Amino acid sequence: MPERSMEEIHAIAAPIEKQLLSMLEVLAIIGISRTTFYRIKAKVGFPEPIMLGGVIKRWHRKTVDDWIAEQVEKSTT
Questions:
Q1: Domains along the chain?
Q2: 61, 42 in Cβ contact below 8 A?
Q3: Which of 68, 63, 28 is nearest to 44 (CA)?
Q4: 23-56: pLDDT as tens digits
Q5: Nearest 5°: CA angle at 13, between 10 and 18?
Q6: DSSP string covering 2-59
């Protein structure tokens, strides 16, 4: 079976409001490192992930997109 890109997987997996993102996907979307992520989370906050099975952290794509939009709005006002 050929490898699929994350975009292809998400396109067939679920509507955007129901997509769940891993930490690596969140970091890629925001364009930052894990260290920078934790610095930003401590300084300005970031939505808490949902826990799957008590061990797997995932973020709703819409929540991440909304957080990004909020940060953009804050920086332009």
A1: 18-76 (1.10.238)
A2: no
A3: 68
A4: 999 999 999 999 999 999 999 999 999 999 999 9
A5: 85
A6: ----HHHHHHHH--GGG-EE-HHHHHHHHT--HHHHHHHHHHH--PPPEEETTTEEEE
